[in-house]
Amino acid sequence: MPSRSKRFALAAAGVLTICTLGALGSGFSIEADAGSPTITSNPAGPDVAEVAASQDVAAPFGGNCSEECETSLALLSDSDREGLIDLPSRVQRTLAAIGPIKGDGGTKAAAEVAMHLSDPNVEKAAALPGVEETLAAPFEAEGGDVDCTLRWFGFLDQPVRTVGTHRCRIGKAADGAVTIEKLTGERFLVHLAPLNDRFSAYLGRSFLPDQDERDYDLKSPVNAGNANFGNISGLATISGGQIALIGGSELGMSPPDDTFFSVLTLSGR
């Protein structure tokens, strides 16, 4: 399995790694100046310990998890399910670890969407233009091919990294579930499963074009011959007319990094 330093060298050389995508805790705000706005910690917000305590694995998403939600969570492996429930805490840990974030509008909007995934005040106005006051689960989505941009937060010693813009396809599976497929670079295919009215789970697989493994598989979570690809899962939501896939872990990363999350944003149609 490649080391952390080798993985960074590959990414810098243009071999883009597909990460599973995570969520975020509240207690952060966007502050802007004329040059480059930053994301800073909100002293009035809960600390990491408080957020972690509130994310009880036995009561997912603050208790907002119906029987349908529990059925969707049951599709995941134990570790993936626990990771999904822990995503709000993971993102807050990440932002606390990396400090103020400077970036372009797309980067700030991606971070803002992740923040609102665990915002208890869902009616609170967003700080950034284009980010809706509330998030909506992508139960329905217009099909077709769109641009999609992947951003990493807390990767190695980089606070933020825009990995690249690619092409993604929004479609539907035979059972009617929304599907999202990354068509260029390193690939993935995920299906969306209902959790609540704010976000859905996504689960599927990442792969190279010549790899046959394309489905989430409890028995074989890692692709044969390449531990950088395999089962992926995370949270999906719509904000500002755009779907965002948010995840937390990096396949093939050694040692694992619990202060990392990523956001893949699909352009609106």
TrEMBL record:
Signal peptide (from-to): 1-34
Keywords, sorted A to Z: Signal
The protein's name in its UniProt record: Secreted protein
